[in-house]
Amino acid sequence: MKKGNNLEVLFSVSRKRKLRTVILLGIFYVFLVSFEAPFLLKNGLDSVSHSTNLKLFSKENSEEKQAAPVFRAHRETRPFSGLNFTAGIVNYNISLQQESGILKSAKHALKQGRKLWEELIRKNITTTTSSLEGLIIHNNSSNFDEKCPDSISIRGDEISKLMVLPCGLALRSHITLVAKPRAAHMETNPKISQFMMELLGLKTVEEGEDPPRILHFNPRLKGDWSEKPVIEHNTCYRMQWGTSQRCEGFKSEDHEDTVDGMVKCEKWIRNDDGNGTSEGQSKGVKWWLNRLIGGWRTKKMSFDWPFPFVEEKLFVLTLTAGLEGYHIHVNGRHLTSFPYRVGFTLEDATGLSLAGDIDVHSIFAGSLPTSLPTNDFSPERHLDMSERWKSPMMIKRQVELFIGILSAGNHFTERMAVRKSWMQHKLIKSSNVVARFFVALHSRNEVNVQVKKEADFFGDIVFVPYVDSYDLVVLKTVAICEYGVRTVSANYILKCDDDTFVRVDAIVNQAKKAAKNNKSFYIGNINYYHMPLRSGKWAVTYEEWPEEHYPNYANGPGYIISFDIANFIVSDFEKHKLRLFKMEDVSMGMWVKKFNSSRRAVEYVHSLKFCQFGCIEDYIVAHYQSPRQMICLWNKLKQQGRPICCNTR
């Protein structure tokens, strides 16, 4: 019995020791998971991401380096495109004459881009604080305190077609124009006489783009070929006109909105009023009769005025910036008012342009702001360096949808508006959808410095290593395909612009619907049998495109392709088999056509809801949306629960 008791005690002690060991191991494991794993996750992945900078121009085929799926939470901050530009462009043996121009341009831009990128890496630029201080260009800081004149006067020989307003306008700023309309001239038939006065946003424009027209004021003395005077007001952003406000001689109705208490359109005597003669005589007779019988005490005499702009006659026009809009008085009398439109501020109006059939005698601008920044490159004015706008952690390697956004280096405001609007969608915040900006290097080094800091902080910018130009945008599109295929392994890929508002859930639903049949697909606002323009700003030469028609292609502001098409494009690019064309949306149509004929059938899905010009009701994507419109659309989508346009700018 004693022997058995001793054995039981021995086993009991042994069990206790094992139990203590297990407990100690458990405590150690909990300690390791709680303290060591987050440290490794935070620092290890970041160090790996930064260590890959040296592989930017590697000659190895990156298609063979696809990493295995990682299901840990991490923020993908790869600051550059992993596309093998050395294989796709630098080592390309030019054989097609029509491609020689764009390929030579690409090689030159990549060579310049490599130098600029290496300069950025040498400087080892990193964002160490979330304050705006890190985004100020210190060597130009004096520009932000530059004083502007409170008034500007131009007379006689000094007058040109453009008057610069260095600090823009402010509340109660006014511009007085003394001028004379020219006599009507023949333009087809009948005669035409008109002039344009426009407020321009000279400092909110990328090189090569037309500046936005913050106010377009266009009196047409002979009307729209109708010989009835008309005045048109409008705005134009990125070559997209808003909804016009026309004044045709009729006073605005009582139920219509006013601007600072003033009607949008005053009445003037129209040609179909008999030039005022018979109607004026009739009113005069009625007035005298009413006066004789006492009615003059209760009724007021109404006066009609002629159209204030007359050929070869001097006029004095005053434009005033009110609280709700612009007010225009001519010869001391209120003529029209035009409400401010979402997208522009008074300080954006840094130029006054005059054009058309007009001889200007003098211009005076008064009550101008004197202390606004005059440097057109001031990212600290536009970037909100808050943690809430950073790209979310990627929970899993493969995602439902990848959104590649084309952006220019100095489009700080546009990127910030996207971050604050549709990139806040729950599908993006949960990492089921991933969105990234694709930015090429800017010719101005200070812009690249600030974009690099922006990329380090927000973690949502991918550099494409060439010096940016319109003709090479197609390289960004290929880079979007590479990122969507190799970095996030997305089922579908959407390409859009930084002035495109995206309904993320609608895009996912469209893609899922097309994918039900297990087909390759190409979704967007598709152009069929579109012919190249051979003249004008968007002209294409026969050397660039010898065919009479383009392949069927979706408009560039927004289209979706399936994973297999994107993978095919990247593979062909790195094998020197991808034909490049300066219009990226046409290029995509060309590549999809090749995939359709050589690999498998592609389902083309056409939808007008991928809106090319502006916004339509029940849109899926809306193009040419200014930063303020992006916020407006997002707020309406959240509040109303359905897509409603912000038509005004």
Automatic annotation (TrEMBL):
<keyword id="KW-0472">Membrane</keyword>
<comment type="similarity">
    <text>Belongs to the glycosyltransferase 31 family.</text>
</comment>
<keyword id="KW-0808">Transferase</keyword>
<dbReference type="GO" id="GO:0000139">
    <property type="term" value="C:Golgi membrane"/>
</dbReference>
<dbReference type="GO" id="GO:0010405">
    <property type="term" value="P:arabinogalactan protein metabolic process"/>
</dbReference>
<keyword id="KW-0464">Manganese</keyword>
<keyword id="KW-0325">Glycoprotein</keyword>
<dbReference type="GO" id="GO:1990714">
    <property type="term" value="F:hydroxyproline O-galactosyltransferase activity"/>
</dbReference>
<comment type="function">
    <text>Possesses hydroxyproline O-galactosyltransferase activity. Transfers galactose from UDP-galactose to hydroxyproline residues in the arabinogalactan proteins (AGPs). Is specific for AGPs containing non-contiguous peptidyl hydroxyproline residues. Utilizes UDP-galactose solely as sugar donor. The addition of galactose onto the peptidyl hydroxyproline residues in AGP core proteins represents the first committed step in arabinogalactan polysaccharide addition. AGP glycans play essential roles in both vegetative and reproductive plant growth.</text>
</comment>
<dbReference type="InterPro" id="IPR002659">
    <property type="entry name" value="Glyco_trans_31"/>
</dbReference>
<dbReference type="InterPro" id="IPR001079">
    <property type="entry name" value="Galectin_CRD"/>
</dbReference>
<keyword id="KW-1133">Transmembrane helix</keyword>
<feature type="transmembrane region" description="Helical">
    <location>
        <begin position="21"/>
        <end position="41"/>
    </location>
</feature>
<keyword id="KW-0812">Transmembrane</keyword>
<dbReference type="Pfam" id="PF00337">
    <property type="entry name" value="Gal-bind_lectin"/>
</dbReference>
<keyword id="KW-0735">Signal-anchor</keyword>
<keyword id="KW-0333">Golgi apparatus</keyword>
<dbReference type="InterPro" id="IPR013320">
    <property type="entry name" value="ConA-like_dom_sf"/>
</dbReference>
<dbReference type="Pfam" id="PF01762">
    <property type="entry name" value="Galactosyl_T"/>
</dbReference>
<comment type="pathway">
    <text>Protein modification; protein glycosylation.</text>
</comment>
<feature type="domain" description="Galectin">
    <location>
        <begin position="161"/>
        <end position="366"/>
    </location>
</feature>
<keyword id="KW-0328">Glycosyltransferase</keyword>
<protein>
    <recommendedName>
        <fullName>Galectin domain-containing protein</fullName>
    </recommendedName>
</protein>
